[in-house]
Amino acid sequence: MDQRNSIVRADLLITGARIAEIGGSGQTADTVIDADGCAVIPGFVQTHIHLCQTIFRGAADDLALIDWLKQRVWPMEAAHTATSIAASACLGIAELIKGGTTCALTMETVNHTREVFKVVEETGFRATVGKCMMDKGAEAPPALQEQTANSIAESIALLEEWHGKADGRIRYCFAPRFAVSCTRELLEKVAELARARGVMVHTHASENRTECELVQDETGLRNITYLDSVGLTGRHVALAHCVHLSVDEIKTLKTTGTHVVHCPSSNLKLASGIAPIANLLEEGISVSLGADGAACNNRLDMFTEMRTAALLQKVLRGPEVLPASRVLRMATFDGAKALGLESEIGSIEIGKRADLALVRLERLHTTPARDVVSALVYSAEAGDVDTVVIDGRLVMRDRELLTINERETIQSARSEAEGLAADLRE
Ligand SMILES: [Zn+2]
């Protein structure tokens, strides 16, 4: 499957980390995987995730964004230890791989981001990771309140330690939480540093009406207009959500080439609203998909996001908008483009990195799979993913994780989640 979703029936040869042949000579490989009955797809690229929130699953339900942050998510992030965050990241990556996601853009919390990088390195996952930056807002717990200079210094130290590591599999991004939690000084400095260092910026924008009002009251500007004024738009910027946008803000996203990340399940569960994705795509704006965190979804499953994204736009604009092939491209190639990695991943082409998922389509709920793309977007589910390869390395085969001990991951996530809950009760 290439970036236009053309489908071929052929053998695929991987040499080292890259795709060497498609429909080639049938030369004998060291490892042969029978993909009969499966669709071999580019691994999903989720462009908005919070690995640190995976063990908050089920602990922050039924709230709107600002209360969700203040009452539940910030206190839990503040209580994280090095071991609890590592357990959370491992749980998240295990779930992502089991659902065919091979790459994620993830915003972590203020502290312990190094632990997340270590888990990404050990598990063989591909990720662009950023330490969350928060230098404003007295309502955040003290452990999440940073001095501007310290936030920047720590981000630069992580960038220098991790960006480009593991043969480019691990990358750094600046991750200011959102305009409400960051001073203008911090945002301007991030804009300048990201351009100077050639790394991307990952932040939240215009997710919720209250958030938009807070930014407008303080700056006199609409959220996206404000971000543009501090330099935080452009082809290296990914903005999660973009639910509430004015015509002028859409124009700004278009002219600057800023990437929008659509998180439909999160937007529904926090009752944030429905993002105008079909309109953005008609304007030629880049849109990719993410599950957001397990605290607000509560799954990290690209099949759920693809299906929900398509169904929501049909309710808004009619059944013909956002066909399955467009959604599948958002979940793969467009995600790679948002990360600036479209020449490396996001489609199955000779010379690209071998990031692949085999999805078994001989299931009751996918039969008959007369249109493979339709089956993938509307019928398939995470449990249909059989085998996953990242950077040429098998990380799951026959649904067995090969770089992660699944049982230990569940046990340690459960006990760390109980530990955090106990800390917060004291
Ligand atoms: Zn988020």
Helices and strands in order:
Blueprint: E1 12-15, E2 18-22, E3 38-42, E4 44-49, H1 65-79, H2 82-98, E5 101-107, H3 113-123, E6 126-130, E7 132-133, H4 148-162, E8 170-176, H5 184-197, E9 200-205, H6 209-219, H7 223-229, E10 237-241, H8 247-256, E11 259-262, H9 264-269, H10 277-282, E12 287-289, H11 302-317, H12 324-331, H13 333-338, E13 356-360, H14 372-379, E14 385-390, E15 393-397, E16 400-401, H15 406-425
Bound molecules: zinc ion (ZN).
Zinc ion (ZN) is lined by residues 48, 50, 204, 240, 292-293.
Question: Briefly, what is this?
Answer:
This protein is 40% helix and 18% strand. By secondary structure, it is of the alpha/beta class. Strands 4, 5, 6, 7, 8, 9, 10, 11 and 12 form a 9-stranded parallel beta sheet that branches. It has a 5-stranded antiparallel beta sheet with strand order 3-13-14-15-16, with helices on one face.
Biggest pleated sheet: 9 strands, parallel
Q: Name the overall outline.
A: globular
* Sheet/helix structural class: alpha/beta
Number of helices: 15
Bound molecules: zinc ion
CA-based gyration radius:
20 Å
Q: State the separation between the terminal residues, measured CA to CA.
A: 53 Å
Please give a structural write-up.
The strands form three sheets. Strands 4, 5, 6, 7, 8, 9, 10, 11 and 12 form a nine-stranded parallel β-sheet that branches. A five-stranded antiparallel β-sheet has the order 3-13-14-15-16, with helices on one face. The protein starts with 11 loop residues before the first strand and ends with a helix. α2 runs parallel beside α3 and α4 packs parallel to α5. The model has no long low-confidence stretch (mean pLDDT 96). The chain is built from 15 helices and 16 strands. The longest helix has 20 residues. With 426 residues, it is α/β, with parallel strands linked by helices. β7, α4 and β8 form a beta-alpha-beta unit. It binds zinc ion (ZN). The site of zinc ion has 6 residues, from loops.
